[in-house]
Amino acid sequence: MLIRSTWMRLFRHIPFDARFVVSNPGPRWNEIVRFENRTFGDLIVLDHIPEDDMTANTIKTLELYKWLINHGSKYEFVTKLDTDVWINAPAFWERYLVPRLSNKSGHTAAAVNRTVIGQLYFSDSGYNTFAHGSMYTITWDMVQLLVSLQERFNVLTGEDAAVGILMHKGSQTANFVNFRGEEKFDYDDSDAREHDFAWARAGTHPNAISHAVYGSNVIAVHKLKDNRLWMKVAKCFNQRGIKPMPPLQRPERRLSLGTRWNDWMHSIGLSRSYVSMMETIPKELIAYDTDHWVCDGIWNLGGSRQGFNTYVAHANVV
After folding, report:
1. What is the tens place of the pLDDT at every residue in 136-164?
2. 33: left (phi over 0), alpha (psi -120 to 50) or beta
3. What class of enzyme is it (predicted)?
């Protein structure tokens, strides 16, 4: 699997336990799964639920949280990550997790409570906000809270949307740390400057929902289902994280007709092709409450209306 041989190996010096989560594959695949787990030791098998698209897209993540609790596998932070996401683990660790850890009690522990780190997403179908399901991280008390809420309300919907719905049903609130568009985005190969590289063209829109790799702040690149695209993005990273973005040394490739059209429409203010994910959230859902911003009545965004990461100094962690 490409994940094991790329970012999992490249970033193995970062303190995380990467696990692949599968449901019950059925009798034809059981022995193969057991063999793979004996070989790599990185599978969690939820054998009480079936392996199918419906389960994967609805209850699987919540069932994983329940499994972690029942098996005594406590973590300070738990990240849900799709298999088509490349994660810059060193940058995520240094910028988002280390500042939220403390060893004041003698061991390293989360210094924050009820916190979600992800990309705030709005679903107009359910008029609901939640962390986009391709990647989000929650504190252990959020794991416990979501499991208890699911036991009460038994929500069956998209696995990421379920988080927002459960928070509403339980009248709960949590802190939300929001990714910028340049940090987490869907990869758009038509935005790349050359056929063989994933680096973005000069006229890219780095805060848009979709674009090529740009700058030094990249945390997660989504929609890399094609192995060719995966390896193009992988070439932008080394053990320290993302490489410096090279300057343009030759003319860029000719842009597709669709990209040129979007650029022109955007230039005259008639296109929303390059809006950020935050800009898709209705303004009426964001309000100021005493000393902090709140989205959808459930997400505490802190002092920033967008909820962007504001930690600068690192915590004292060994």
Report:
1. 999 999 999 999 999 999 999 999 999 99
2. alpha
3. transferase
